[in-house]
Amino acid sequence: MAKAFDRLAKLRAAGADWYATSKLGLVVVGSLAVLLGSTILQVSFGAYPLALGEAWNTVFDAQVVFSPDVWRWAFLGANVPEWLTRQQIIVWNLRLPRILVGALVGANLAVSGALFQIVTRNELASPYILGVSDGAGLVVLLTLTFFYGLMPVLPLFAAIGGGLAFLLVYAIAWKNGTSPVRLVLAGVVVGSVFGSVQRALFFFIDDLGVAMAAQAWLSGTLMNAGWEEVRIALPFTVIAMALAFTVTQELDVLLLGADRADSLGMPVEKVRFAIAGIGVLSTAAAIAVAGLIGFVGLIVPHMVRNIVGSDSKLLLAGCLFLGPALLVGADVGARLALSPVQLPVGVITGIVGGPYFLYLMRKKTNLGEV
Amino acid sequence: MGDGRSSRVEREPADSRSASEPESETETGTEAADFSGSDLVLGYPGLDDPVVDGESIAVPPDEVTALIGPNGSGKSTLLKGLADKISPDSGTVLVDGRQIDAFGSKELARTLGLLSQENVVPTGISVEDLVERGRYPYTGFFDSLSDEDREVVDEAIRLAGIDHLRDRDVDSLSGGQKQLVWIAMAIAQDTDVLLLDEPTTFLDPQHQLEVMQIVETLRDESRITVVLVLHDIAQAARYADHVVALKDGSMRARGPPEDVITEELLADVFEIDAAVLDTEYGIQVVPQNPLADGAVPPTGDPPTPD
C-alpha cells in the first residue's frame, strides 16, 4: 500500500513538473516561431528584395554555413571572403548579423530586467530604473561631444558609465542596508539628473552627423549592427547568462523578501549587490551595441511570469527566448514598416510596450509586487 | 519541568505523553540546543530609549516557551533580538554556548529559525516549491536538492498537515492555509530552535488550533526548542510549558503557565480585571473589565510605576 502511495506521489510530482515544463515549452516554441518568422521577413525584404525561397537557401547555404573562412570573418574579424556572391554578402554581412545582434540584445534586456525586478522586488523595475541607462547615455554623449576620437571603445565606456551610475544609486539608497523602494527612488533621482545633463549636452554638439548618431543611440537602434557588434556583445552575453543561471536558487529565496531570505541564512545585501552586478553587465552588453531600447526589459519578464510563474529557473529560461523574439520582431517593424525610412527599434518597443503596460495596469489590481 | 508538564491538560490521551517523556528526560542535554540571552538591550534606530532594557532569558531546551504581554511590551522585539534580527546594543545571545554572531549565516539558519508575522508570497509558486526553499541553508552554491532534502520536505509537509495542498499555488490559499505553509517551510529548515512571531494572530479558530497542534507535535516528536510570541493568553496557558510575561520591555513573571497566569499578573501586565479558572480544560482566562491606566488592581502587588 505504501508503495502504491509512493508511486502515486512520484507520478504526481512528475505530472506537476511536466505541467510547468510544458508551459515553458509553450513560451520557447512560440518564441522560436516568432524568431523564425521575423528572420525570414528580415532576410527577404529590404532595398535588395529576395524571394522567400532564395532568402531561405542563402541562409542555409551549406557552402557558406560550414565555411571556415566565413566563421573567421564573422567571429574573429578576418577579411570578408572574396568568393561570396552579392546576394550572400547582403544576407550574411547585413541582414543576418542584425538579427543576431537583436537576439543578443533582447536576451540581455529581458534577463537583466528579470534580475532587477527580483532584486528590487518590484515588477515595475527594469534595467533602466536603477539609473544604469542614463549613466551609460551620459557617458556616450560626453564621448560623442568632447572625445570623438574615442568612438571605437564607446561600448566599454557605456558599461563603465552604467556601472558607476548604479553604484551611485546604491550609495544614495544605502541607509543601514537598502530597500527595494529606496533603490527605485534613488534610481529615478539619479536618472533624471543624468537625463537633464544629457539634454544640456545636445546644445554643445556642432556636427549634425554627430547629433544624429547621438539621437539614434539614445532611442536605441540596430541600424548599424554587424558582425563587429556581435563580437562585442557575445562574450558579455554568454558570461552574464551563465552567471544568471547559477544564481537561480538565490533568486528564488530573495523572492520571499529580505527578512525571510535572511532567516534562511542568506547574506541579503551581498547577494542583492552581486545579482544587480550581473544585471548591469548584461544591460551594458545590450546598451553597448544597440543604445537605449526601452520596455523590453520591463515587459518580457512580465509576460513570461504570467505564463510560467515566478520560479526563477523557468522565468530566466523563458526570458532567454521571448526577449530575442520580441526584439527581433520589433526590429522587423522598425526596418520595414515605413520603408525606405528606418525607425530606431526603441521607438517601436516604446510604441508597443507602453500600451501593453497600460493594459496590465488596468487589468491587474496588485501590479507592482513580484 | 516535571510539574509544569504533568499539570498541563492534554487533548490527546495521556499515555502518549507519558511514553515519550522519560525518553526526552534522558536525552536532554546531549542534543538539545541551549538557548539564552543575557542582559539584552534592544532598540530600533531612531528611537532614543531601548524597547527592551537589559533583560535576560534562559529558554528551557526541548520545550515550548511563550512570550506574552500587551501591545508594545517588547515581546516581538525580544524575539527578534534572540533571532539576531536586531543586533543588541549590549548583551549576548548564546546558542549551545556560542555567541550568535559567531555563527556563519547559513550555519545559523541551520540552528535557529524565525517565522515573522508578515511574509511575502511570490506569485505562481506551488506549496511544495515554497517549502523546498526551507532547505536553502543546507544546499551549496551549485547543489540542487538531495534525496535527504526531499524527505525532510515531505516530512515537513506531513507534519503541517498540508499534503492535500502540495501542488496548489500558494497565492490561491487562504490566510490560514498560507500560515501552515510558512510553518512547513520553517520545519523544513530543520533547526534546533524555532522562533515564531504571533503565529496565530489573524487566523480563524480552526487554523489557530492547527498551528498550535503542529507546535505541540513538533515538541513531542522532535528535539526542538520553540519560542513563540502569543497574543492570546488562553493559548499560552494551554500549549506552553513555560510562559514569560513582559510589560514595557521588562519581564514581570516567568514559569509554568499556572504559576504565571494569575489574576494579579493579568491586572499588572495586561491591565485587565479577569477571572482565572482552573477547569477540566486547563486554565481558563475570563476577562471582565479593562482597568483604567494606573488604577490599583483589586488584589496583590501594587502597580509598578511606569
Automatic annotation (TrEMBL), chain A:
Gene3D superfamilies for this protein: ABC transporter involved in vitamin B12 uptake, BtuC
Xref: CDD domains: TM_ABC_iron-siderophores_like (cd06550)
Stored InterPro entries: ABC_BtuC-like (IPR037294), ABC_transptr_permease_BtuC (IPR000522)
Bilayer-spanning residue ranges: 24-48, 99-116, 128-150, 156-174, 181-202, 271-300, 312-330, 342-361
Subcellular location: Cell membrane
Any Pfam family the entry gives: FecCD
Keyword line: Cell membrane, Membrane, Transmembrane, Transmembrane helix, Transport
Free-text function comment from the UniProt entry: Required for corrinoid utilization. Probably part of the ABC transporter complex BtuCDF involved in cobalamin (vitamin B12) import. Probably involved in the translocation of the substrate across the membrane.
Family: Belongs to the binding-protein-dependent transport system permease family. FecCD subfamily.
PANTHER family the record matches: ABC TRANSPORTER PERMEASE PROTEIN MJ0876-RELATED (PTHR30472:SF25), FERRIC ENTEROBACTIN TRANSPORT SYSTEM PERMEASE PROTEIN (PTHR30472)
Protein name per the record: Cobalamin import system permease protein BtuC
Organism name: Halorubrum trapanicum
UniProtKB/TrEMBL annotation, chain B:
Location of this chain's protein in the cell: Cell membrane
InterPro entries, alphabetized: AAA+_ATPase, ABC_transporter-like_ATP-bd, ABC_transporter-like_CS, P-loop_NTPase, Siderophore_ABC-ATPase
Domain ABC transporter: from-to ranges: 35-273
Short name of one Pfam family: ABC_tran
Alphabetically ordered keywords of this record: ATP-binding, Cell membrane, Ion transport, Iron, Membrane, Nucleotide-binding, Transport
Main location: membrane
GO molecular function, one term: ATP hydrolysis activity
Membrane topology: Peripheral membrane protein
The keyword Protein transport belongs to this UniProt entry's keyword annotation: no
EC number(s) stated in the UniProt entry for this protein: 7.6.2.8
Biological process, per Gene Ontology: monoatomic ion transport
Cellular component terms (Gene Ontology): plasma membrane
Compositional bias per record (Basic and acidic residues), positions renumbered to this chain: 1-20
Region (Disordered): 1-46
Catalytic activity: an R-cob(III)alamin(out) + ATP + H2O = an R-cob(III)alamin(in) + ADP + phosphate + H(+)
Subunit-structure text: The complex is composed of two ATP-binding proteins (BtuD), two transmembrane proteins (BtuC) and a solute-binding protein (BtuF).
Role description: Required for corrinoid utilization. Probably part of the ABC transporter complex BtuCDF involved in cobalamin (vitamin B12) import. Probably responsible for energy coupling to the transport system.
Identification of the protein by name: Cobalamin import ATP-binding protein BtuD
Protein's organism: Halorubrum trapanicum
